[in-house]
Amino acid sequence: MGTIDTYGTPDSSVYLNWGTSDTTTTSEYLTSAPLDMARYMLLTKASDSETYTWGRNFYKVNQYASSSVTTDTWRAWGDWADSAYQKVLVPKITPLARMREILASRRAPAFIVPGKQDIYDFGRKALGPPKTDAELRARQTLRRVIGEDKWRLFCRNGFISVTAPSGLVYQVYPAHGVTNVFDMGECVERLCVVLTGQFPPTDSLIMRYLMILNNEDDFRSRANTHTVYKKKAIAPQIDTRPLQLIFAELRNQAVA
Amino acid sequence: MTVATQLEIKVIGNATHKFDISNELTILEGTTEPEKGKGIGCFRVLCGGDDGGDKRITWMSMVLEQIREAKKLFNELVREGLVPYRVGLDGKQTSEVMTEFDPSAEEVIFLPVRAVAGG
Q1: pTM
Q2: Taking a C-beta distance cutoff of 8 angstroms, is the pair A96, A57 a contact?
Q3: Which ipTM value was assigned to this complex?
Q4: Does any CB of chain A come closer than 8 Å to the CB of residue B89?
Q5: Residue A137 has pLDDT above 70, yes or no
Q6: Measured between CA atoms, how close is B80 to chain A, in angstroms?
Q7: Cα B89 from chain centroid (whole Å)
Q8: Which of A30-34, A194-198, B23-27 has the lowest mean pLDDT?
C-alpha cells in the first residue's frame, strides 16, 4: 500500500493503462477523478491481495465479466467508483447541518427521494436544474413527448420507463447512464448506448426512448452489454423519531 | 422568433451540413417553444455541437407554401442520414418512424442515428 503513495503528486492525474478496445471511456473517467478518489480505488484493489504493477497493462477497470491475465483481475467499475466516492468525497455532515437536513425533509412540498436503495441501477436521484440552455431545450422536448405524468416521475426518479413492443421494460437514464432491461420485474440486461458528440444529457434519453419504441432490435444491436449485478437491497433509513430526541442525540454527539 | 436562411447542423461527430432554410419557415431561438394546438408543426433536429441541444424549425400546417418548404427540408434531412420520428404530444401516442412527410404531424424529432453507438 505504501507504494501507491509514492506515485504522482497531489496535483497529478492517476493514469491506468490497459489493452482492450473499450477502455478509453474508463480512462477518461479515472483520469478525471479526483486524485484521492482514484488513489482510494487503487488502495482498495491492492488490499485484495492482488499484485499490481504501476504503469503497465495490469489493472483492468471494466464492466465485462471477470477473467484473469497473469496477475490481473477484472473488476466492475461501478462498484469501485461508488465505494471510493463514499469514502473519500462524501462530505462529513455536522450535527447542525444534519438537523437542518431533517427539518428540510419534513417540510412540504418536496420530492421524497428514498436514496440508493434500488437493486440494479445507480439509484434514484431527483432531477436537478438544467445546466445549459441546450439541456433546457432537450427537457422541454422530452416533456412534450412523454406527457406531464411521466415527466413528474422523471423529475423525481431521474429515469423513465419504456415498454417496448417486445414486452421488455427499459429503464432509461439520461447522459451516459446504462439502460436496465426488465423482464417480468427481473433485471435481465444492462445496455449502454450513447450519442457520440456533444449532446445534452436529455437528448441521449430521447434517443434511447425513440429507438426502443421504434427500432428495438437496432437499439440492442448497437448496445454494449454490461453485467447485471444483484446487490442486496437496502431499505431507506428515514428517521421518523420526534425532533426533540434527534436534537438531543445530535447535541450529545457534538459535545462528545 | 427569427428567420435564418442557412442552418448549420452537425449530422454526425464533427461533420456538418448546411441546410437552406426558406424564409417561409421559422427557426425558434433559445428556449422558445412552438405554440400547441394552433396548427403549427415543428421539426426538432438533434444535432449536438458547441451549444448542443436541438434546432427547432416550425411551419404552419395550413399554409401551402410553408408545407412545401417543410417537405423539402424534411427530405433533405432524411437524405443526410437523420431519421424522422413522429411523436405525439403529452404522451397521447407513441412515436413512429416517418417514411414520408406528413403535414399534419405536429412534432417530428430528427435523430442522427449514425451518431448512436455502444458505450
Answers
A1: 0.60
A2: no
A3: 0.85
A4: yes
A5: yes
A6: 17
A7: 15
A8: A30-34
